[in-house]
Write a structure and sequence with these properties.
The structure is a single chain. This protein is mostly helical and about 350 residues long. Helix content is about 55%, strand content about 10%. The strands form 2 sheets. It has a 3-stranded parallel β-sheet. A two-stranded parallel ribbon has the order 4-5. Strand 1, helix 1 and strand 2 form a beta-alpha-beta unit. It binds tryptophan and iron/sulfur cluster.
């Protein structure tokens, strides 16, 4: 787990997540476990990017506040520690919008128009329903660049799907520094996460819209009801049919993420010889999943019962992030020779 690295390295980590609902095991093993590690090694800023959610959900803001709170609960429950990492709400830091505006001045239209991630998003972000390409959505990668650079993030833990956005952020930095003959920003680098992708219970990508996700906020009973449905090696029709864990695309993947090495080997063995049935195999898996999830869910419950405290943590984190962004913006306005009233 969190190695011997007590000394915090100089690079600053920045990442964000759109608040679109409760987080699931896919977020946990794919993103949050990694962030929890990183907070011991680097200074970290983690942002709940509600403006980014608006780029596609601008006409559906009913759930936004609740979603923000659920993301905060899921992060804190997963072990994001506000003593170590700065956790904040994007929309409460107006300096990010200011930097977005100034970056938009130096960004050629072509860069955003040809962004492949953006094209995918138009179809994907609204749970399969096409989003219209608004001016705001077109600005998505510029806003993301402003997120990262307003706090001077230099390392950005993201998945492969975000590399195109990060490339634009680097191009903006180069162009900004060149235009204003300055070194205000350093091009941010991606930190590609080495985690296995956890599929949904039906074998597709885990996601809310597919109804195939296990949520961090669920109980053991709910988790079991779902795991029970997880697909297994289709060759195991009868209990006595031997199987092959390599063809068990959901349940055995979960073993590889949650179970000990010995338990994985034993499951593989007993699968091949039909010494165990899939139901028993899933029951053993449930114990491993719960071992990791139980403390997390208890923490989540405790925090959910003390929302005043959660709001206070968010307020403190946001104030801290805002102070950092204000320093950055003073520098930016200065190298751009913008008018600054001293009030
Ligand atoms: N675009 C990212 C995603 O969809 C979310 C995001 C917004 C982000 N701002 C960011 C990620 C800044 C890293 C850094 O996952
Ligand atoms: Fe998958 Fe386990 Fe069934 Fe084998 S026994 S197919 S590993 S669930």
């Amino acid at each position: 787990m969190s190695s011997a690295s007590n000394q915090v390295q100089h690079k600053r980590v920045m990442s964000g997540m759109r608040p679109t609902g409760k987080l699931h095991l896919g977020h946990y093993v794919g993103v949050l476990r990694n962030w929890v590690e990183l907070q011991h090694q680097y200074e970290c800023y983690f942002s709940i990017v509600d403006w980014h959610a608006l780029t596609t959900q601008y006409d559906n803001t009913e759930m936004l506040q609740e979603n923000i709170l659920n993301v905060a609960l899921d992060w804190l429950a997963s072990g994001i520690d506000t003593q170590k990492a700065t956790v904040f709400i994007q929309s409460q830091v107006p300096e990010i919008a200011e930097l977005h505006l100034l970056f938009s001045m130096v960004t050629p239209n072509k860069w955003v128009e040809t962004d492949p991630t953006l094209k995918d998003m138009v179809t994907m972000l609204r749970d399969g329903v096409n989003a219209d390409l608004t001016y705001g959505l077109l600005g998505y990668p510029i806003l993301q660049a402003a997120d990262i650079l307003s706090v001077k993030g230099s390392l950005v833990p993201v998945g492969k799907d975000q590399l195109a956005h990060l490339e634009i952020a680097r191009d903006i930095v180069t162009r900004f520094n060149h235009t204003y003959q300055s070194q205000v920003f350093v091009p941010p680098q991606p930190l590609l996460t080495q985690t296995p992708l956890l599929p949904g219970l039906d074998g597709r990508k885990m996601g809310k819209s597919y109804g195939n996700a296990i949520y961090l906020s669920e109980t053991e009973d709910e988790t079991w009801a779902k795991l029970k449905q997880g697909i297994t090696d289709p060759a195991r029709i009868k209990r006595t049919d031997p199987g092959n864990p390599e063809n068990c695309e959901v349940i055995y993947k979960y073993y590889q993420v949650f179970a000990s090495a010995e338990a994985q080997a034993l499951a593989a063995d007993e699968c091949r010889t039909a010494a165990r049935g899939c139901m028993d195999c899933k029951k053993i898996l449930l114990d491993f999943v719960m071992e990791e999830m139980r403390p997390l869910r208890e923490r989540r419950q405790a925090l959910a019962n003390d929302l005043g405290y959660v709001h206070q943590l968010l307020r403190e984190g946001t104030e801290k992030a805002r102070a950092t962004c204000q320093d950055t913006m003073r520098e930016v306005r200065s190298v751009m020779k913008l008018y600054q009233l001293t009030l």
